Amino acid sequence: MQTQHAFSASRPAPGFIPALAPHPDDGTDDAPAGLTALGAVATLRRGTAAYREGDLASHWYRVVSGTGCTSKLLPDGRRQIGAFLHAGDFFGFEALQEHGFAAEALTDMVVIRYPRQRAESAGDADPTLNAFLREIACRSLTCAYERLLTLGRRTATERVASFLLELASTAPDGRTVSLAMSRSDIGDYLGLTLETVSRTLAALKHDDLIDMAGPHSLVLLDRPALEEMTEGDEPAVRFGRA
Amino acid sequence: MQTQHAFSASRPAPGFIPALAPHPDDGTDDAPAGLTALGAVATLRRGTAAYREGDLASHWYRVVSGTGCTSKLLPDGRRQIGAFLHAGDFFGFEALQEHGFAAEALTDMVVIRYPRQRAESAGDADPTLNAFLREIACRSLTCAYERLLTLGRRTATERVASFLLELASTAPDGRTVSLAMSRSDIGDYLGLTLETVSRTLAALKHDDLIDMAGPHSLVLLDRPALEEMTEGDEPAVRFGRA
DNA sequence: CGTTGCGTTGATGCTTGTCAACGAACGTGG
DNA sequence: CCACGTTCGTTGACAAGCATCAACGCAACG
């Protein structure tokens, strides 16, 4: 996908302001006032980039709605997705000077942009905000390390199963998952090819571990079995979620 | 390796105090005074753990001398090494409550332990320390993401080449590397088997890209060729180094 | 001087990637 | 409204890269 670099608005669009409030499915994830005061709403059209590799890291971000991903490309086109970005997730913290990963919208997105220098200064004077930022960084690191284990040591089936459980962990009923991303995106997230992802999902369906209404809508039928497949010991935690 | 949980000393051992000073090969990496004041020296024997998965995250750590690694196990014994820890590296920041990864000494190690709560409080009152901690977190995240790309998308040869370049990046001459870890450790770091690591190193030697005096002492003969093999665009940065 | 741990090398096979074909869904323009 | 191209997901056949299993040499050590 050819991404373009574009924000459509740097000031709140009226229709989106309600989304700035805490998300209904998670009462604990709104930012401290010191950070919220700095945020500006922006919208990102599907396929456009919030920033690219090498861009100056001038802002931190938070997803209001829609889904995106951070990704990095090798010169020959191989791609690794660092994280999927869902409503409530923070991103853009990984950079000191320049972004090492690009961030791109997989669907139309609404995000909040926080000017980084001002946010850092605010943190210096506000222990609550400071703790909040530390927590985001910690969670991001924990997630990244968990993913190292997945990419380094798990089989294709285990990877897909852990991915489904990760998505289901934020579903209201814990079992209904809607995939906003393509098979290719999932493959690039899990270090697999899109064909392997497709085949693995088909196998899980054949074994009655999941059900698929359409390619982007599925239900976990046997969560314990899926959890056992990942051989993991702790629940999946999503990237950057405070 | 059966790791044991043991610190041999919680107060400075006379012989090690000089190592607390900035490391001779890097004048920029000593901690702010506010953090240094909280540190207590401890020694770790080879094969012992600073902490294990599930331990309460009560401290942050910094390596004074020796080398270690953070690692995570699957129930069936598969292991993923999150990072190798060298002199100057900070570790233990990834945990909010409990450690998700264990940290273990691969050689005898000297580390500094910083009580986490006191360090966090100190950070709240000290912008310099605060920025320092942010920087460590950023670098750790950048490293982790770079490693996601390696584990998810690079071939065995590319992984080994990038590993060697990573090690060489802190060598005085940029080409002489001494491997403190075993082939098995390298494999667990790169998501490969120890046999593949051994074979890949042999192939690199055969192609005159590296020279091996012994299994743990090698020299990069053709850095440009190795860099091209990784297909990466930016220099390797080591975990947690400020 | 036997034992143990580690690194190397070989033979073999499995998991996953690659290449290809096909169908469904979607948008576009005649 | 329908032909058309495009994108995406699925499935099959095949190949390759790496894992697995195994044997051997060497150095360290009690």
From TrEMBL, chains A, B:
The Cyclic nucleotide-binding domain, residue ranges: 47-96
Taxonomy, superkingdom: Bacteria
Keyword Endoplasmic reticulum in annotation: no
UniProt KW 4Fe-4S keyword: no
InterPro entries, sorted: cNMP-bd_dom, cNMP-bd_dom_sf, Env_Response_Regulators, HTH_CRP, RmlC-like_jellyroll, Tscrpt_reg_HTH_Crp-type_CS, WH-like_DNA-bd_sf, WH_DNA-bd_sf
Pfam hit, one: cNMP_binding
CDD domains, sorted: CAP_ED, HTH_CRP
Record-annotated HTH crp-type domain positions: 154-224
Identification of the protein by name: CRP-like cAMP-binding protein
